[in-house]
Amino acid sequence: MKFCANLAFMFTESSSILERYALAKDAGFKAVETGFPWGYTLEQVKQAKEMAGVQQVLINLKTGDVSKGELGVTAVPGKENEFKDNLKSTIDYAKALGAQKIHIMAGKLENISSENWTTYENNLKYAANILKNEGLLGVIEPINQHSVPKYFLSDFSKAVEIIKRINSANLKLQLDIFHLQHICGDLSHNIKNLMPYVGHVQIAQVPNRNEPDTAGEINYKYILQHLENCGYSDWIGLEYKPAGNSKEGLKWVNEFGYNL
User: I need a labelling partner for 102 at 20 to 30 A (CA). Which of 57, 131, 142, 256 fits?
Assistant: First the structure.
């Protein structure tokens, strides 16, 4: 198992994502994943990443102002050009940082119609073609309605249907076990069945989204072994909120028999 720190959730001891690169390295991480680094230039982020000496695994699509609840426009009719601009900007950052994966966020919507699904799929087709030319992977992630009410994509079956229809090696599923448990449960069978479509995995305990060894619904010693048994050997993003100090909370990694 290879673990990367999610800098939107971990190392919030610093308010600066630039400083979190160094904190992740200090804690022993070899790799990180991030949201889109709003407020920082490409050069600033690249320098922070390179000075820390860590690998960038994934970056989220430029989404709009997250503090205002803006989580992308991929499923919003009439905003196709904004989506294309956001994709281009994110690709620029991904290439500069050496990230191979881009999480294409769908957006939050008050009311969902068939037009939203058509727009979403058309934008993903466009993205898959662009990402193929760039040698990058796009991933889509169902997000549960408890954590992010009104998020457009919260159905694993629909996500897989779209991935199968687009049929591109450059578009896969981001399997966050935290969201899978909230939405579906039945983790053993669902992980096995979804694995052929998976391009990235993330973990956190349910329901409080803390470290995998904290009290909650998921037995992560079993789940991590199950992921391995199902053939997953790529990076696992630690998209959890540390219950206390980020570095001290990493004791579970060794206790579970792994290394950073």
Answer: 256
**Residue 25 vs residues 30, 77, 100, 202, 221: alpha-carbon distances, Å:** 7, 41, 20, 19, 24
How far is residue 204 CA from its own chain's centroid? 12
Question: d(Cα 34, Cα 94) in Å, to the nearest integer?
Answer: 10
Confirm whether 228 is a catalytic residue: no
Interaxial angle between packed helices 80-97 and 114-134, expressed in degrees from 0 to 180 and rounded to the nearest 10 = 30
Flag whether the pTM goes above 0.85.
Answer: yes
Catalytic residue among 115, 239, 248, 255: 239
> Torsions phi, psi of 116, nearest 5?
-65, -40
Among 50, 82, 121, 141, the active-site one is 141
Entry field: residues in the chain: 260
Identify whether 141 is a catalytic site residue: yes
Convert the pLDDT of each residue in 237-260 to its tens digit. Answer: 999 999 999 999 999 999 999 999
